[in-house]
Amino acid sequence: MRAALAALLVCAGLGAAERAGATGLAATAAERELQVEAAFLVNFVRYTDWPSARFASSSAPYVALVVGSERDAALVAAVAGAAGTVDGRRILVRRADPVALARPAAARRLLQASHVVFVREGAGLSAARLRALLDGAPVLTVGDAPGFAAGGGMLGLVRLDRHVAFEADPATIRACGLAVSAKVLKLARAPGGQP
Prior knowledge:
globular; disordered N terminus; 195 residues; Rossmann fold
């Protein structure tokens, strides 16, 4: 069962990444790796439940905020677009303005208006600072820096040889009023550890 779900997550995500790659956006190994990470991000959205009050209407999109470069946001948007809708909602990808993130009040508003925040390694926003700015808001936090989940993030993407896996902190996820599928959490590694 675990292997079947893992295969489904990877295949669904890679299909979206391949469709996004067909647009000619991905050329380098780093960009292909980001496409795989973006596919994980789409699947995290697919298997997470938010409080209904987080949406203005039944068709309001999921808002994914990318803390990274413009190219990072474009690649994530391409994968999200290729994946189609999730529960009838599209995934709207926005990029965090570094200037806004430097001002605590503006950063708090920007981050808390999102459903998921994806922090790229080297973007200058630590998991601990992100958690403090979100202040318990129901926002799924995902990052690809080493130790992201152990440092206060919810889901951390990790590189294992030539593969991408993820770590999860279920207690942090629950504390913010989110529910990630138990089947997905079974696939996760403990922060800094083994599955």
